[in-house]
Amino acid sequence: MDRKKFLKNSFFGLGAIVALPTAISSCSKDNDGVTTPPNDGSNNSNDCAISPTETVGPFPILTPAQYVRASIIGDRIGVPLLMTLTIQDQSNGCTPLEGVFVDVWQCDKEGNYSQYGGNQLQSTNYSNQNFLRGRQTTNANGQVSFISIFPGWYPGRAPHIHVEVLTTSGTSLLVTQIAFPVSVYSEVYATNGYNGAPDRSNTQDSIFSDSLSRNMSDSVTGNTVDGYTLLKKITVG
Hints:
Helix content is 12%, strand content 26%. It has 4 helices and 10 strands.
């Protein structure tokens, strides 16, 4: 599959959103842009360690059941990002975990979250908007996919995406965060509309201080023109 065409069709023509994660994964093999291989061997197919548990706040999804959707872009603009997450179960030999909810949320290119604002944490008030938040249910391969934009950053944090895995009854199995390679976010933040380099690098971020290698995305491929594909394996206990 031509990854460029897939990303462009998915981002600008959201009818393509029904594409299966297996198709998305095959697209990511087209190395026509920046490629980051699995990080330092600490998060590969042989690794069955539970993913790092991270903070849910300060901007968690308030009513996630309302946001069952594969495209979480809303009215935001930015460099396209297609993410495929694979959830595996450590208690069952790290086999793919089918039929669980995966919630994701992130800031926009200016560092703002929907559902919050008008306060010291975030001056811009987006409390009545619901962009860049979504929920999907894992398939037989333990996978979910979301179409989004590359997140921006806000003071005190390196770029990241929040993820929570829950049972269908609402029991939380894990809350974690995904980090991005410096080379990738530096390229994105040099484009128009983003706010330049973050004030905290990955290694300076207190949330990632004890777990950065396991928070890091497994791979990010693409470029600022055609968009990026992110792959990440997340292990619950």
